[in-house]
Design a protein that fits this description.
The complex is a heterodimer of chains A (about 325) and B (about 500).
Chain A: H1 4-30, H2 51-62, H3 128-133, H4 165-178, H5 187-190, H6 203-209, H7 222-230, H8 232-235, E1 248-252, E2 274-278, H9 280-290, H10 317-322
Antiparallel strand pairs in A: 1-2
Helix pairs in contact in A: 2-9
Chain B: H1 11-18, H2 25-70, H3 83-115, H4 122-144, H5 158-180, H6 189-214, H7 221-254, H8 261-275, H9 290-302, H10 304-318, H11 329-352, H12 354-360, H13 365-394, H14 401-434, H15 440-476, H16 494-500
Chain lengths: ~325, ~500
């Protein structure tokens, strides 16, 4: 080859073609989506995540969770993701509208997490004791009563708790997913963090009330996530997930045991006068996990599996059992 | 021109030789080469030494990464040693520390030789290397400290990226200077690839950084941009440098011209055209428009054209000279790398097919694929080029043929075992994952024995790298052999080689 000009032009031309073709044109096609709303302009999906969940996303990215956990559900004709109950429909570009960084992942050493928040047990007031044992005084989004919004007395929630914030945005999705025609509820009033049911109850008594399928909290509940992050193999025997002790703080119990202290058993349990409490980062990470939910119907990705709609509180641990591994 | 005749003496002695009575063209060429080599000595050795230090660090990180997968409690309690930080640290050290620095070092030397010009402004390059090291150091420190951006292959925090960019600007401005002062009209095949690599890298890296951090694209487009970047970095940066180097080393060592220039041109342009369109096949069945993925699958399949032409060209060049693989370390590493390029591309085609992807998506096969490309193909060619170039820079020959052999065989068996384990393990894992009657945990359990095997292969690679680093250190400190004959792998047959050449 003699001429330098054709060489340069060729080098630029081929690459420009690829750049335009694989990034600019797709960006024109799917890079400017808006949330989907219903006919009345209500029920927008997806919604931006709360501050805590958003911070949790950064922690998720920084600690490399994405190298083992994907966040995408493939269609039923292509893979068994939906059969594994990782989701009720395939993921669509719109699901990730506000995600930054987007954490689709391309490896599954651990299960897919696209709907891990949705799979958290749904509890009503009767199930309040387990919820109150969850580390943060506020409950997970899934712990909100789905229908009886009337019971939400705005005075009740401990609004002072910073952990209440993820509920504000996550709750409408949970509600919407459970009832096909959701009432246009206001996000803030729909959030019903159950008041710490019985603050005076001794921790031991609460723990007794909280015997889940594996002797711990219900699967994928907030308390479960904390236990799982701190001591994965205490909940899933054959797991090879690393323990994230550095997201938790070991401290001497001063006076009463902290509300959000982890209820560990076995070798990871601290000695008598010590307790393990989640750091703010751990709470954010769990808030992020609980905010993951793609069960909302999208016009471009119809539900293929019957949504696990309005699960009776008693039935909620059942899917969890199947998914134990 | 065969390698045994390339001047191995320091330039001063060679210059004296020209004063002798019968000065031939060959003597002039030899002096010219020696002067060029001498001018590249400092920057290239700086790039190489840094690369090898990063290689050792990356190897240690890789060992932790691999062991932690089947021993998750190993060193788990320090945040900076958690698996999810060590893995990207390993990846980025290998990509930006080892691979890029070794590649730039080789590319500098090749460009100087092929442009037939001494290296002007070596300070620019040394500054570039220093900044590059600083950038990688900041980046890896940032990842371990918890500053990872979360985009695969791009985990370096933005402040490290900026430093890398400054470093790269210094390197590329040098490369353009060099090309401007080249002698001779003809641009050799290697130069096409190197020039391509030098121009593609800033484009792909810059465009990606802008699209992810400056004017961020929305939602899943970030993932598309990330994989577009990763694949183009693999093909148009590492791949182009690797292929360019192979196009130089193979003909050079065996002392024959490339079989076909036209074939090489077809190979180069189809490579540039098709390989740049790959990437999205890794997102198969993901939340993307199907046409993007299909386009990339088609491009991946079409890369068979450059693979076939490059492979055929090398094969025909080598025909009748395969016996030299017994003696020349450079040839052995380079040919291993060139063959791996073929295997790598064909495996890429296989894995990209939609019917296959359903089974292997989200499994360890993608790791096998990356290692095949970055190690078996690119790194082996870099080792080969270092075995050729370093003696010409330090004026000494490699000390121990036995160490080169040990390096070659532990690398070969190590990477072979690793790819086998990850590939078979990945297929097992993917098939278990595909079968909904098996619990998900089964798929992870099924791959664990293979991951233990991978750890064993990693130990072999660790041996290889430390042996190589030790040998390189000897050369660096002037402890190589002071003979005019290159170190052959089977010295007792040295005479036979010389007669053959």
């Amino acid at each position: 080859m003699k001429g330098i000009v054709p060489l340069f032009l060729g080098i630029f031309g081929t690459f420009a073609f690829s750049w335009v073709g694989l990034t600019l044109i797709p960006n024109y096609q799917i890079g400017h989506l808006d949330p989907q709303v219903d006919e009345e302009g209500n029920d927008p999906y997806p919604a931006p995540k709360s501050g805590m969940a958003d911070r949790g996303r950064k922690i998720y990215a920084a600690n490399g969770c994405v190298y083992c956990h994907s966040q995408q559900v493939r269609a039923d004709y292509a893979a068994s993701d939906i059969e594994r109950k990782w989701g009720v429909r395939r993921s669509a570009p719109r699901d990730y509208l506000f995600d930054r960084p987007v954490l689709l992942g391309k490896m599954r050493v651990g299960p897919d997490l696209s709907n891990i928040g949705k799979r958290a047990p749904v509890e009503d007031e009767n199930a309040a004791p387990p919820a109150s044992t969850s580390p943060a005084p506020s409950a997970s989004p899934g712990a909100n009563p789905p229908a009886p919004v009337s019971s939400a007395s705005p005075a009740a929630p401990p609004a002072t708790s910073p952990a209440a914030s993820p509920n504000a945005s996550a709750s409408p999705k949970a509600v919407a997913a459970n009832s096909p025609a959701p009432a246009p509820t206001n996000a803030t009033t729909a959030s019903v963090p159950p008041a710490p049911a019985n603050p005076s109850a001794s921790p031991a008594a609460v723990a007794d009330a909280n015997v889940g399928p594996s002797g711990g909290p219900p699967m994928y509940s907030e308390a479960w996530h904390h236990l799982h992050l701190y001591s994965p193999r205490s909940l899933v025997l054959e797991s090879n997930m690393p323990a994230y002790h550095f997201l938790y703080e070991k401290r001497r119990i001063s006076g009463e045991r902290a509300n959000d202290a982890l209820k560990l058993t076995g070798p990871d349990a601290p000695e008598g006068e010590w307790e393990i409490v989640p750091t703010y980062d751990a709470k954010c990470l769990v808030a992020f996990l609980l905010s993951l939910d793609q069960s909302h119907d999208l016009k471009e990705a119809k539900l293929t599996a019957a949504p696990a709609s309005s699960p009776a509180p008693a039935a909620s641990p059942a899917p969890a059992k199947e998914e134990k591994k | 021109m065969n390698p045994a005749e390339v001047p191995l003496t320091p330039p001063t002695t060679a210059a004296i030789a020209t004063a002798d009575s019968d000065v031939t063209n060959r003597d002039v060429e030899q002096v010219e080469r020696a002067l060029i080599d001498a001018s590249t000595r400092l920057p290239v050795l700086f790039f190489y030494s840094s690369a090898i230090v990063w290689l050792l660090l990356g190897t240690l990180l890789a060992g932790f990464t691999s062991f932690k997968l089947h021993a998750p409690d190993l060193l788990a309690n320090w945040s900076f040693l958690t698996w999810g930080r060590i893995r990207p640290a390993h990846m980025n050290v290998m990509v930006y520390g080892w691979g890029s620095m070794a590649g730039i070092g080789t590319a500098i030397w090749l460009m100087a030789r092929l442009c037939r010009t001494t290296l002007r402004h070596p300070l620019l390059l040394i500054g570039g290397a220093a900044f590059w090291n600083l950038g990688v150091l900041l980046g890896v420190g940032g990842i371990l400290a918890g500053g990872s951006t979360g985009y695969e292959w791009l985990e370096f925090p933005p402040y490290a990226t900026i430093v890398l960019f400054v470093a790269y600007t210094l390197v590329v401005s040098w490369a353009i200077l060099m090309f401007r002062f080249r002698r001779g009209d003809n641009i050799y095949i290697t130069q096409w690839y190197l020039l391509g690599a030098f121009l593609w890298f800033p484009w792909v890296y810059g465009a990606t950084q802008i699209m992810l951090f400056v004017v961020p694209v929305q939602g899943v487009m970030q993932e598309a941009v990330t994989w577009w970047f990763a694949n183009n970095l693999l093909f148009l940066w590492f791949g182009a440098i690797g292929l360019g180097t192979a196009y130089y080393m193979i003909p050079k060592v065996i002392g024959r011209p490339v079989y076909s220039y036209h074939l090489a041109a077809i190979g180069f342009w189809t490579y540039a055209f098709f390989a740049s369109w790959t990437g999205m096949q890794r997102l198969v069945d993901g939340p993307f428009p199907a046409w993007m993925i299909t386009a990339s699958i088609a491009a991946t399949i079409l890369t068979i054209i450059p693979v076939a032409t490059v492979g055929l060209n090398h094969h025909m060049t080598m025909r009748g000279y395969f016996g030299l693989l017994r003696y020349s370390p450079t040839l052995r590493f380079t040919v291993f790398g060139a063959i791996s390029y073929t295997v790598f591309s064909l495996l890429g085609v296989f894995l990209s097919l939609r019917s296959v992807a359903g089974y292997v998506q989200f499994s360890e096969t993608s790791i096998a694929y990356s290692h095949l490309g970055l190690y078996a193909f690119f790194t082996m060619i870099m080792f080969g080029s270092m075995y050729y170039i370093v003696p010409r820079l330090v004026g000494r020959e490699w000390r121990y043929a036995s160490l080169i052999k040990l390096h070659f065989w532990s690398s070969t068996y190590g990477v072979g075992l690793m790819i086998l384990m990850l590939f078979v393990g990945g297929i097992t894992q993917g098939s278990s994952m595909h079968d909904p009657s098996l619990a998900f945990g089964e798929s992870t359990q099924s791959v664990l024995p293979y991951l233990r095997g991978r750890s064993v292969s990693g130990m072999l690679l660790t041996v290889a790298h430390f042996v190589f680093a030790f040998h390189f250190g000897l050369m660096l400190f002037g402890l190589g052999r002071t003979t005019g004959v290159p170190t052959f792998l089977n010295p007792q047959e040295e005479e036979a080689v010389k007669t053959h050449l």
